[in-house]
Amino acid sequence: MDVGTMQVRSRRESGRELPVLVWRFDAPVRAIASAPHGGGLSVRRWLVNAQVPMEYGRRDPDRHLAHLGVSLGLPGRGVGMLTAADVRAYASASDGGVEAVATVGLGHPIRAAAPDTGRPASLVGTINVVVLVPERLSDAALVNAVATATEAKAQALGDLRLDATGTATDAVCIAGPADGRPHDFGGPRSLWGSRLARAVHAAVLAGALRAGG
Q1: How far apart are CA 2 and CA 51, in angstroms?
Q2: pLDDT tens digits, 119-149
């Protein structure tokens, strides 16, 4: 589980060359994701974080990302994320074997418990976070790890003095080995949760600074 397996690739879409971050895993991983394609908790073989135009308005992101996986020659089932942020400006960080990669767009930062404005969500401001953990986490620990990653993201934005906890379209994926004895905890003071939190915090902080946060 090494972030070095990530590649920056491109594809031609709607007359434009658009970059995409691609992870192709040698062995299936157990992943939890909030992504529009391959979301939920399942075994996956690949992951993509694809840049789309700021005016992106497709109503079928799941199908769009499935076709993208096929066009990239990715086997089996995977996880797909979308963002209007420049994915080539990704930021990465590691801590004790945990690897985190963040693409950060801050066009529309929000507070999670903000009043309802009735406006649709925009991909212009999207923070996508990918985390690779080198040892297996139980299903409950993976759920806990999502909360931990979200807390670490919000902490990074707070450190930047942004009055926000994220954006309306943030996505996260946490993946680890599908085999082996699982660790039962993913909270911020657990073995892998604490490392995950520090890696996510550092990656989001660096990515936000690159994005002009």
Answers
A1: 22
A2: 766 666 799 999 999 999 999 999 999 999 9
Q: What residues are paired with 40 via a beta bridge?
A: 33
User: What is the reported pLDDT for 125?
Assistant: 75
Mean per-residue pLDDT of the chain: 93
* 50: three-class secondary structure by DSSP: strand
Gap between the Cα atoms of 46 and 173, Å rounded: 11
Tell me whether residue 108 is exposed, middle or buried, using C-beta atoms within 10 angstroms of its C-beta: 0 to 12, 13 to 18, 19 or more: middle
Q: Report the candidate in 4, 26, 34 with the shortest Cα–Cα distance to residue 178.
A: 26
Report yes or no: 74 and 22 within 8 Å, Cβ to Cβ.
yes
Residue 144's contacts (CB-CB under 8 Å, 6 or more residues apart) are 185, 186, 187, 190, 193
- Which position has the token pair 């990918």? 130
Token pair of 91 as six digits: 């930021």
Strand partners, 42: 31
Residue 21 pairs with which residues in a beta bridge?
A: 8, 49
1-5, 38-42, 132-136: which range is least confident on average? Answer: 1-5
**Residue pLDDT, tens place only, 99-113:** 999 999 998 888 999
Q: Are 156 and 138 in contact (CB under 8 A)?
A: no
> In angstroms, rounded to a whole number, what is the distance separating the alpha carbons of residues 138 and 30?
9
Q: Which domains does the chain have, with CATH numbers?
A: 3-210 (3.60.70)
